[in-house]
Amino acid sequence: MYQTDQLLQVSANLFKHLGDIPNGEERDEYIETINTMLDKRETIIKGLRQEGFQFDEQNRIHRTLLELDNGIKKRLAAVMDAVKQDMANLQKTKKSEQQYFNPYSNVRVMDGMYYDKKN
Q1: CA-to-CA separations, 42 to 1, 36, 39, 45, 98, in angstroms, rounded
Q2: Tens of pLDDT along 67-91?
Q3: CB atoms < 10 A from the CB of 97, how many?
């Protein structure tokens, strides 16, 4: 029972932490904290599985854990989407910058001569 309480506390902290997604330089520390919390949660879940934990739908703590797990999954997906969007914007910015510095890089022409047919 002690591990389920511990899992509930870690899950609630993770859910709360995932509530607001920072921008810029703060994101590295934010993601590192998420990874640490997920590792703690994984360790507790492995311990529960070794003890032979069975989900009981009638148990209020088990239902709360299930709801928290679903919420964590949704918020983690939102964090992943935000990171993917930032990566896409960074790639777009790099491409735009390259295009600005060398606007003719994508032009494929055969080098040759132009003859003016004036008689």
Answers
A1: 17, 10, 5, 5, 43
A2: 999 999 999 999 999 889 988 998 9
A3: 10
